Structure formats: C-alpha cells, structure tokens
C-alpha cells in the first residue's frame, strides 16, 4: 500500500467530491420531493431526472452567471442557445433573438378576413421590433429580419387596402431616444416607449376614426403620471437566457396615473375580478421587487397575459370601447389606453382558452378593433384568430 | 448516459462512488456492484440492448472457460474460431448487415428482407473487448475468469463501455481480481476526469458548432469549408481524447489502470506516426489481433496493411466513406513505407504540416455523410469561391479564442504546462469543472462523436 500523501491533486479530488456530494445531495432531495408527483403525472424516472438536471437544477442561476461571465469576458456577440441557436448582442449592447425571413402573406389574409367579418373597423398597429433602423448595428452573422418581414407585411396590407399604424415611424419622431425604446435584456419595449406609443395611437384614432379620445390631451400627458425608476432591477427574457454579465441588468420604469382612477378588471378565461384604483386593479407590485432581477417586470401591468381581460374604467368620461388583439408586448399600452376610454377588452389568441375573435367582437359593440403586434412577433400563432 | 451530463456528474457518479467506497469492502462485491452499475449506465440510453451485451458476456464467459479447459491445440483453436466468429457475427448483424445487404442488392438486384436495425451504442468497443478476452485467454496472456460477473465487468465497465478506450484483457486481467485502490490514484483520476470534461465541453463542443454549420451548409465556399474542416479536426480530437481522459480518470478512481489512448497526435511528422499516437488502443488491437497474426511486416506487408486499414475504416462505420477513409490511410502509410528513410531529409516542421493537412483532409471524408457530400465539400474547399463568407466571419470572430486554445493545447510543451503554485493549480481545475458544468446546464451543444461507433 502506498503511503498517503496529501498533494494538490488530492485537494482537487477532495473539493470535487465535496461538490458532487453537495450538489448531488441537494438536487437528490429536490428530486425525491418531485419524483412522486412527476411519476403520478405520467412522466418516467428518466425524463424527470433529466428535467430536474437542467433548468430545475439547484444553483442553476449561479452556474448560469458563471456561463454569463465567460461570455461577457469573451465579449461574445453571438451566445450559444439551445432553443434559438444563438442570442445576438448588438453593438449597442442590446440582446436579440435571431429572426429569419418568412412569408407574411397569410397573416395579411387573416387580418383581411377579420376585417370583412367584423362589425367594427379593424386597425393593425405595428409596434417597433428590436432592430431600429439607423441605430441598431448587429454583429457579423447575427441576423434579425423582423423589419424586412414587417415591411413586406405592411406592403401587403396597403395593397389589400387595410389600414395600419406603423409605430416605428411615429416613435422615431418623438423625443424618446432610440436607446430607451427597448430594454437591453428583454424582448419587450420599455414602459416609456409604450407610453409614447399610447399618445401616438390616440392621435391616430382621433384623426382617422374621429373617436375623440382624450380631447384635451390630459391622459396622454406624461405630466399627469408618476414615474418611478427601479435601477438595475430587471433581467429580461433574453438576459435570463445568457445571464447578467453579457448585457448587464436593466433599469425598469413604472408609469402610473397621478390622478384618481377606479377600475373593474375581469377575465372570463381565468374567473378573475379586480376592483380598485389603477394600482390596485392593474398593477402587480409583487413583480417589482428589486431583490429578484429575474421577475418579469414588464408584466407589472396586469401581471400576466390572459386569454381574455376586460378593463372597465369606472371614471371614464366617454363610452368608447376598444377590442385589443395582442400579445404580452401590449400590456403597458393597454394599461395606458384604459385611462382614456371606458373599456379595453384584451384578447390573446395564443391562449387556448381565448374566445374566437370574430365571435367575441360580433357579440359586443366596439368602436374599433386593434390588432397590435411588434415587428419581431409576426408569426402564425399571433394571427390564428379563429383557433 | 453521457459523462458530460448532469445526470452522470451529480447523480450516477456520486452514488456509485459512495456505495463502492463506503458500503462495500471486498473486491468481489465491489466488482459485482460496478458491473450492475455499468448495466444501469448502459440501459439509461439503450435499455433493450442490455440484452445484446448480456448475451455477449455470457457467451464469452463460456467460451473462455471452454478454451481454458481444453488443452488440445486443434480443439482450442476451433473454440477460439467459434468464439471470435460469434463476436463478429453479433457486430455484423447489428452494424454491417444492412450495409452489405445494400451492396448485395446493387450487385444482384435482389433485395434481402432485412428489418431496420438500430445500432447498439458502443457495440464496436465492447465486441472488440470481448474478442480481446477470448484471444488473451487463448494465448495465456490473461487468466480465465471463473465468474461471469468478472467477464461482465471487463466487457461492460462503464468508464470504457461506450467510447473506449478498447482495454485489452491482458492489461487489466489482474486488476479485476487484485486491484488496490488508493488515494493518489483516486486523486489523479479526478484531475484527469476534469481535464477530459473540460476538453470535451469547453473545446470540442464549441468546435462542433462550427464544424456542423460548415458541413451542413450547401455552399460554404472555400473559407468557411476550410474553417469547418479545421474545426472538425479539433472537435474530433478533443471530443475523443477528452472522453478517453474521462474514462482513464474514472478507471483510476476505482483502482483500474487503462493504457493511454492519445499521445499528441497532431505533432506527428508522418501518417504512420499519427496512427501510433491516435486512438492507440484501436491501433494496438489491430496490430496484435490482426496485423501480426497475418504476418505483420515480415511477409506480404502491403496485403496486411490493406486488410488492417480496410477493417479500421469499416470498424468506424458501415459506409463507403469509412472504408475509403481507411484505405486513404492504407495508401498514405504504404507510400511512407515505400519511401522509407527518404522522408527523413525533409525538415520536421514541413513533415508535421503535411501530416496535419493529410489528416485534416481525411477527417472531411470521415465527417461527410456520404461520398457525394465529401466530394462536394472537397470541391468547396478547393473552389476559391466566396460562398458563405458571413458564416465564416461569424464563426471565426466568435470562436477564434476557442480555436487558439485548441491549437495551443495540442502543442505538447504548452499542454504539459503545470503551475508550481498549488492553490493556482487547484483553482484552475476547479474552474474548468465549474465552467464545464455551467456550459452543460446552459444546455449548449453536446454531441459525442464516438458514440456512433
């Protein structure tokens, strides 16, 4: 038998074993807790083990931070990703999902069909995609053809005689600098950009549909809102995929009315009823905790996406009702819009429980139907109005 | 189950180490435990093929006992022939039957009714080990195992079960029954394992991204095609040598000492030398069990070389690519043998460069899915067309550091660098481990080339 000697290799082995035992042990306990439930729900042991060995791994965030640190140190602009192939970091420090070129013609057809069958005018609103013309510089090999797809889509709408509002153009003329349109780490626009878009949308609706929303410009004036900054508090959807050291952590800005509000918010799909002020019925302060940067702060408005949500403004000074067909991008926009009209109905067609759009709108009387998606989000799922 | 997986690292390995060292004391019980753990390890990926492996184990155990019992030479030889034929039949059915049926169909126009056959993972490795057991028992180079569990452990031991190295029986015959585990070996095994994991996860997987993109591109153009070929050259080296490091390290953790499988192959100054440094366990297997029995270099050298290299190609896979790839090395090695010492006059750096280039071109043949695809890829490499320059720029820019590390670590003097400052050495290895785990948890690309063989 060789003599025992504690050398540097032994030190490595000791720490390695300690790591295996600690991480294996703590994940084992976690696994044991979940295995029974998973087995009951039909998952096999192997699938459960493999699932718990990825995203559910204890200390996953710490290891992701280490990965992120590596990518940050390498100054990587294309960060490997198992789902998307890679995540792009542009030269302005903003993260993007890669977007290919695809045929948008079928989406225009869906809008046309809905317009023909609706008992109210239908307007498509294109919110900006994350690539901003004249501002965003993508690295070599990083591609995002969202704007090209959107341009083609709008061109088809023009050909078909369908109305649309291109918020890319209107926001570009506002005082909001391009750097503040989007979070670095999230795919949504910022609250400030959504507020700017709210003003642009109201102007457009008044000019083109004569709705007379906010005639004295009170609700669209930022001076009547409280703006609260939450610095370094938000790691968005893209940031959570690559960690906080690739594009940093975003500041979050909450904008809420500084005037009296009273709402009733209901959801048929989720059996939800909320009453109270904007803060009580619309805001979800639980998502604004600054000690957890991974909370989806963009969803501070309404908390999440519902298949159907009706926001009734009990203090509205008009009886305008808007149907908004949307995705998560429009949550702050809907919140701001609700201050200026009596009702905003939101339908999210990605939710299987969401009602069929045509049936829903024809059972009610709306002043306008708005379909609002951003350039990055044009996809089949979004235009599946009769699912 | 992959070594480079969270399930292996944090579940399988600690449990097996814990039970082995804490609960079990006797070698026999430890051997039995390792054997059943290995079956579980194999079954994780391929439950149904455990039966194929068990069949191989039981049959070879019986063949071994029979060969040991029979002292009369002709009968021993007959038993040996039967045993080797049995093993070759298993590998033929699962790996080559469809290929040869295809050739038969092309030649005769008659389609044989062969069902779709899935290749059991690691069949080439465990079958060659089984043959090694039989031949070594026959030659008296290793004691026969009375227990089927011990034969099973030799054939199915999880560190080398799926992707080698091919451990010849004579190497570990004594270790199965009489090994002594000690801390120094264990510690060395851990550091070796971590180094292998780092090679695999931090280098090979990154190279794989480039290589796969280039080889899947319809028109990569010259620059991207060369970059892809270079990436694959490093991918396969760090993938396979990393796996071998992990296997050797794991073996040491349990008191086994496997032979080395790689020895800086890309510093070779001839193709013959390359094959003495690359996949050494396969080369020495063919040398000891095929080349020398055929007569080696003493008689019919070129025929023997042809047979060995055709078989080496076929061992890697049942397709013409691999056969041609094997014969490509036959041609190169035969050429080198014919020139003899005339090559010695060429400066080393030129010889190393030319050898590296020859190997790189060989990997293109190896990597391409078909001969047509290989020809197309070669066409792109030598086309001087721009092709997919965007991808070239992307991968070159993003992965240049990984390429630099891959190049540097294949230079022996750099690779053998070890800091004398112990805390730094410990931190270096633990950082490699933590980084590898972080890359695995991030679920980055994690293929394993030699699983296919």
Structure description:
- The complex is a heterodimer of chains A (387) and B (453).
- Chain A has helices at 8-40, 45-52, 60-73, 105-117, 146-159, 167-172, 191-209, 237-242, 244-247, 278-282, 331-337, 357-362; strands at 78-81, 85-89, 95-96, 122-127, 164-166, 225-234, 250-257, 263-267, 272-276, 308-313, 321-326, 343-347, 368-374.
- The model of chain A has no long low-confidence stretch (mean pLDDT 89).
- Chain A is an alpha/beta fold and 387 residues long.
- In chain A, the strands form three sheets. In chain A, strands 5-4-13-11-12-10-8-9 form an eight-stranded mixed β-sheet, with helices on both faces. In chain A, strands 1-2-3 form a three-stranded antiparallel β-sheet. In chain A, strands 6-7 form a two-stranded antiparallel sheet.
- In chain A, helix 4 (105-117) packs across helix 5 and helix 7 crosses helix 11.
- Chain A folds into two domains: 1-58; 95-383, no CATH class.
- Chain A is globular, with a radius of gyration of 24 Å.
- In chain A, strand 4 (122-127), helix 5 (146-159) and strand 5 form a beta-alpha-beta unit.
- The longest helix of chain A has 33 residues, at 8-40.
- Chain A is 35% helix and 19% strand.
- With 453 residues, chain B is mainly alpha-helical.
- Chain B folds into two domains: 6-179, no CATH class; 185-452, no CATH class.
- Chain B is built from 19 helices and no strands.
- Chain B has helices spanning 6-23, 27-45, 50-69, 73-108, 123-139, 148-156, 158-161, 169-178, 183-216, 221-253, 271-277, 280-294, 301-316, 320-339, 348-367, 371-381, 389-409, 412-415, 422-441.
- In chain B, helix 3 runs antiparallel to helix 4 (73-108), helix 3 (50-69) runs parallel beside helix 5 and helix 10 runs parallel beside helix 17 (389-409).
- Chain B is globular.
- At the A-B interface, helix 1, helix 2 and helix 3 of A face helix 1, helix 9, helix 17 and helix 19 of B.
